[in-house]
Amino acid sequence: MRPLVPSSLTADWRRGVTYQLYVRSFSDGNGDGVGDIPGAIARLPYIKSLGVDSVWVSPWYVSPMADGGYDVADYCDIEPMFGTLDDADQFIKECHRLDLRVMVDVVVNHCSCAHPWFQRALRAGTNSPEREFFYFRDGRGPRGDEPPTDWVSVFGGPAWTRVTESDGTPGQWYLHLFDSAQPDLNWHNPAVRLAFDEIFRFWFDRGVDGFRLDAVPAIGKEPEFRDAGCDPTQQFAPETNSPTSYWDSGDVHEIVAHWRALADSYSPPKYLVGEINVSTTEALLRYVRPGELHSVFAMNLAKLPWSARQFRHRIDQHLSSFYPDESWLTWVSSSHDEVRTVTRYAQGDEEHSDPALGVRRAKAALLMTLALPGGACLYQGEELGLPQVTDIPVEMLEDPIVLRTGDPSKGRDGCRVALPWTLSGPSFGFSVVAPRVAQPTEWTHLSVESQEQDRNSFLHFTRRVLHLRRHYIDDAVSDMEWLDWSDDIVAFERGRLRCVINFSDVPFALASPGRIAVMSETSGSGWLAPNSGAWLWI
Asked: What does the alpha-carbon distance between residue 501 and residue 269 come to, in Å, rounded to a whole number?
């Protein structure tokens, strides 16, 4: 593998905090009720005011929107509902003017069934070069009416769909590890690799500073397709079931190393961070070996219950095996794929939900995440303490997980509702008209305008913590030392910083408290309130 570019060239990324922008629900600039790039450009000063260092733009490419834009029909053009390439260029330019780096999402495992690549494959027929761009296989059984393997989709249901050939007869099957509208690309084919080289260069040459690479292990498939013993009633869960012959296998690391070489060919080098859903820390770390990705998202924190023991175990598991001088973790508590933090932590017990408890815990979790070594990522609205919207009518749900499983509780639509910007209006300032999915009426109090007026708001708390992180934490990759204080306490020190998180329902006495820099909840002198956190200078 190529030697790494010296770490000083990526120091800003490894210390930085990224803001995830989901274009469709961020801000509407043309008044049609859909978020777009001009709307996002107008709000960039707000993003800058938070104290973040970069912006990650979720897919803004041409797409039928079968999976929120992760079904790409053209990687080198912008979805018309979001704007134009000129708008994208202006967005990049304005970010750079504000000293914000730009990272865009690249969906590498699959494209849209509407992409010209797939449409040509359908027309070309069996054994054609066009079909070799994907995984077309003959079915099993006397008439080929059984899928080629027993593989199941991440979104539920079979991972194979049969096509109708141009003469109207039932034909081959194609592989899709996600939705049937997202056919998997065949990365064993050199033509696919060359096509993505061109896509990478297209965006790098337009000034994008890096990529967030989607579902990277999914491209790692063994050439021989074998049954994996899948339960057809279950979704494939890579966090517990990988590696398999169709996930995190094959020559995936050779491909990743090639991407890194391409990124390093630019001056300054471009940045690569991966979404790596795998079942072990060892498998995760293989993606950040010298010459591969700069960083990976540590997404497992977003799946943990409110438990000091589990958080410490998972953090320690990641940090104890990392390459501190060569790569780093990017900590993620929330995203477009997860139940929002406030709602996730509001579960007081199995039957009752306590929104105020969720807010307290979400603030404490933010303190913990931003104190850890490495980078961090905030999902839009996380800085406002927005909850999940759980009462969207079933007929308005668009998530393919819901459509494939029939289970609305598994859907992600509720974390993708339009942001509230103002106290009033048909969409609380998101647009001049109502969005497709209405925001809850109580979001008037969670709007940016409302929180700007309240010095004790979640927004002001987030800004303060980000300011402290930027200016007073010595080094975001410095060594960390655990403090063994209590089973319900996560506490650690990094240089002058001491971070203490109280996971219990009772106050905790701070021994030798030092000077308090920030607390998520006020408490008596020398005490840390239940379900809260604090940073102290020692």
From this structure: 37
